[in-house]
Amino acid sequence: MEMVREFRDADGRLWQAGYGYREGLDYQGRYYLCFRPAEGGDGTQGGAVVSLQDVRWNSEHTVLRRLETFSEVELRRRLRSAVGRAAEGARS
Question: Which residues 6+ apart lie within 8 Å of 50 measured at CB?
Fold first, then answer.
C-alpha cells in the first residue's frame, strides 16, 4: 500500500490516505482507496489499514491526481465509510 497524504478526522486524529493495488486480468479498477492511522511518535503504526475497494481507479496517475485534489471533507467522509464497513465486517 502506498500512502499519498495525511489529514485529520473529525476527532482530530491524524490519518494517511493512499491506495492499494490488486492484480487481475482486467486492468480496469486495479487501484483502490485505503486509509491507515498515521505513525505514532515512536515510529510505530497506529492501527490497521481500512479500505474502500469499490472506490477504484484504472491508473496510478489517476489515483495520485484524485488523492491530491480530494478535500479534507471528502477524505473524512470516505474514511467514515471505510471504518464503518470494517466494523460491520468484523461483526459478521
Answer: 34, 35, 36, 79, 82, 83, 85, 86
Q: Which amino acid is at 78?
A: R
pTM of the predicted model as reported, rounded to 2 decimal places:
0.83
Spatial separation of the C-alpha atoms in residues 88 and 82, rounded to whole Å: 10
29, part of any domain: yes
Extended beta strands in 1-92, E state: 2-8, 14-21, 31-37, 50-57
| Residues ≥6 apart with Cβ < 8 Å to 80 | 10
Total domains, the chain: 1
70 lies in some domain: yes
90 found inside a domain: no
21 SS3 class: strand
Provide the residue range defining the domain that includes 46: 2-85
Q: Within a domain: residue 60?
A: yes
pLDDT at 20: 94
